[in-house]
Specification:
Layout (H helix, E strand, L loop, with lengths): L1 E6 L14 H8 L11 E5 L5 E4 L5 H6 L16 E5 L5 H9 L6 E4 L2 H10 L2 H6 L4 E4 L6 E4 L5 E10 L18 E7 L4 E6 L8 H7 L3 E5 L7 H4 L21 H6 L5 E5 L13 H8 L3 E2 L5 E3 L1
Parallel strand pairs: 3-4, 4-5, 5-6, 10-11, 11-12, 12-13
Antiparallel strand pairs: 1-2, 1-14, 2-3, 7-8, 8-9, 9-10
This protein binds D-malate, manganese (II) ion and zinc ion (ZN).
């Protein structure tokens, strides 16, 4: 399975358009030690030809241009090698790219019922896009099944969705609600490579922790280092928990769990512009690396 991180920042990107925090200033300065990041998304493929997007960020247009394998096949005037979008939740940073992809044909969307409902009631996505290429909906399976290409043939990947603790997006009421977020596990039966994609989660206990053990590569929510990061940096008032993100730092943080996970690649993505791990010379960045965990960067690629 080929995996590429298209974007590794949380909502707003890095730097964020209206932000003048220390990290956004630093990355704008162009000095080494921080790199700009677009909003969180990844893409996977079994054969290097047919690709599946894991969420669709508002930065998708530029993410496609930066990765020509997602472009239209050379022998077609128009077209795409994007077969479908697998959605983990209905947050704007994960779905606005769907509108950007409106010029293609019917866009297959895979999403659990709660996410589809938020998108249809909150953003009228099916209704609005009907006037363009349209969308089709598939509810992802809870046990491994073939992930199909847009023409119905097998892609060479298997996938399943599993529920994670999360909340509805702000435009849909912000409530913590069952079914508002999922993670995906993708398996390539040829290489036996297993990927878990989990860019938003409020916790890593119970069934979620079982999925973490059962993979070779994990892409995990790296939004905040600290519970109070937004307050401390003067960028907001909500805590990590109130936003349904498990912080990385401290004894209860996700880094302590990742440290002991016996899997090959452990990578943080969906990193907020306030998170000190974005600065390569910060103690927090060093702690992540010393724990055998990677700080995701845009364009990072690997095969499993
Ligand atoms: C999140 O990840 O918490 C959301 O994308 C924040 C937002 O609503 O912008
Ligand atoms: Mn987000
Ligand atoms: Zn900032």
């Amino acid at each position: 399975m080929f995996v590429r991180l298209l974007g590794t920042a949380a909502g707003g990107g890095f730097p964020q358009w209206n932000c003048n925090c220390a990290l956004c200033r630093e990355v704008r300065s162009g000095r080494s030690g921080t790199s700009p990041r677009s909003q969180s998304s990844a893409t996977v493929s079994a054969d290097g030809k047919s690709w599946f997007l894991l969420n669709a960020s508002p930065d998708i247009r530029h993410q496609i241009e930066a990765f020509p394998k997602l472009l239209s096949p050379r022998d077609h005037v128009r077209g795409t090698s994007i077969e479908a979008v697998l959605l983990t939740n209905a947050d704007l940073d994960h779905v606005l790219g769907i509108f950007i992809l409106r010029e293609g044909g019917v866009l297959p969307l895979h999403a659990p019922p709660g996410v589809r409902k938020a998108l249809d009631e909150g953003l009228r996505i099916s209704e609005v896009l009907k006037a363009y290429g349209g969308v089709s909906w598939t509810e992802p399976p809870s046990t491994l099944k073939a992930l199909l290409k847009s023409n119905g043939s097998e892609s060479g990947l298997l996938y399943e969705a599993f529920e994670v603790p999360g909340k509805l997006p702000r435009y849909a009421g912000s409530k913590f609600e069952k079914g508002s977020a999922v993670g995906y596990r993708l398996v390539d039966p040829r290489t036996k490579g297993r990927l878990v994609f989990l860019p938003d989660t409020a916790g890593l206990i119970g069934p979620v922790s079982e999925k973490l053990k059962d993979c070779d590569a994990l892409l995990l929510d790296g939004t905040f280092w600290d519970e109070d990061e937004m307050k401390k940096t003067g960028t907001g008032t909500l805590t990590a928990s109130q936003m349904a993100h498990m912080p990385l730092g401290g004894p209860q943080g996700s880094l302590e769990i990742l440290r002991n996970l016996p899997i090959k690649r452990k990578i943080y993505l969906h990193i907020n512009n306030t998170n000190p791990i974005l600065n390569e010379s910060s103690p927090q960045h060093r702690q992540v690396k010393e724990a055998g965990v990677e700080v995701g960067t845009d364009g990072m690629e690997f095969e499993i």
